[in-house]
Amino acid sequence: MRQIDPSKSPRFAQISTFARLPICKEEDVRAVFVGVPFDDATTFRPGARFGPSGIRQGSRLLREYNQFLDTYPFEKLNMCDQGDINAIPGFLDDTMKIIENGIYEIISKNRVPFIAGGDHSITLPVLRAMRKKYGKVNLIHLDSHYDFWDTYWGNKKYTHGTWLRRALEEGLLNEVVQAGIRASTYSKDDLEDKKKLGIKSFTINEMKEKIEEIISIINSLNGNTYISIDIDVVDPAFAPGTGTPEVGGLTSYEIINFIRKLKTKIIGFDVVEVSPPYDVSELTSMLAANIIYEGASVLSLQL
Ligand SMILES: [Mn+2]
């Protein structure tokens, strides 16, 4: 699809869609932008329900040609804006089902969803939909947190900090590579859990020191791969608008450059935990929009 022509209509004008792309109709499209505005499973600062609209607003400056990957992603993917999945505030179980069905509907048409969260709990129903269509998938998970805690508040199993453990328990995942981890943890035992769960996990120090090695591990994965990016993997100096910020993270350049190097087969992609109310400068939303743009560019090279 083509963006609204900026030579005729300024970039601050017109209704907000992702990158000023058309709203999806029944055309032959390979990738869509879709919002999942749900933040009831967040454990600290809320506001990620405003992520999709914030990211659309922050995407207005994206242009059609990506010179670093030599591609026109929107045109190649025939990408459009699918609108939002209607999450129900206050009703986690119902919302999980609605997300799973909504994403399944998209991927059953062989479209790759680029999903704007929402808090990180939304990734669990997305992965359930992926499993239904593709079987077990690989997961690349960028985050400052492990997200494999068992429960919160005593016995609550479904939160934005437990989705990864649930996904592993439910047998949704093949290989898991997570990177960027740096948050303090509840106990040293959390590090033991990492070994027990059998995932490849890299701290921010490892990510900074051996980025090429981590990329080559990711690029050697076989089969379908889902990419889930918690914006808090980026330093709050670059991405302050998020629910559980952790200092000492990636720069915006580092994450963009990381994504450009991915060669794994992408079947879905999310950017979650963008909470625009905590960021009056729109930096976080603009970064999230650019991360999606780079992910779409990488996918466009795989066609
Ligand atoms: Mn996180």
Summarize this entry quickly.
The chain is α/β, with parallel strands linked by helices and 303 residues long. Helix content is 32%, strand content 17%.
| Strand order in the largest sheet | 2-1-3-8-7-4-5-6
Q: Biggest β-sheet, characterized? A: 8 strands, parallel
Helix content: 25-40%
Strand content: 15-25%
GO biological process, one term: putrescine biosynthetic process from arginine, via agmatine
Organism: Acidianus manzaensis
Binding site for Mn(2+) 2: 232
Protein name: Agmatinase
What is the secondary structure topology, with strand pairs?
Blueprint: E1 31-36, H1 51-57, H2 73-77, E2 80-84, H3 92-107, E3 112-117, H4 123-134, E4 137-142, H5 163-169, E5 173-181, H6 189-197, E6 200-203, H7 204-209, H8 211-219, E7 224-230, H9 252-260, E8 265-272, H10 283-300
Parallel strand pairs: 1-2, 1-3, 3-8, 4-5, 4-7, 5-6, 7-8
Helix pairs in contact: 1-10, 3-4, 4-5, 9-10
Bound molecules: manganese (II) ion.
The site of manganese (II) ion has 7 residues, from loops.
Detailed description of the structure:
- There is one protein chain.
- This protein is an alpha/beta fold.
- The protein has a single domain (28-300), classed as Arginase, Chain A, CATH 3.40.800.
- It is built from ten helices and eight strands.
- It has helices at residues 51-57, 73-77, 92-107, 123-134, 163-169, 189-197, 204-209, 211-219, 252-260, 283-300; strands at residues 31-36, 80-84, 112-117, 137-142, 173-181, 200-203, 224-230, 265-272.
- An eight-stranded parallel beta sheet has the order 2-1-3-8-7-4-5-6, sandwiched between helices.
- The longest helix is centred in the last third of the chain and has 18 residues, at 283-300.
- The radius of gyration is 18 Å and the shape is globular.
- The mean pLDDT is 96.
- Bound molecules: manganese (II) ion.
- The site of manganese (II) ion has 7 residues, from loops.
- Mn(2+) 2 binds at residue 232.
- It comes from Acidianus manzaensis.
- InterPro entries: Agmatinase-rel, Ureohydrolase, Ureohydrolase_dom_sf, Ureohydrolase_Mn_BS.
- Pfam families: Arginase.
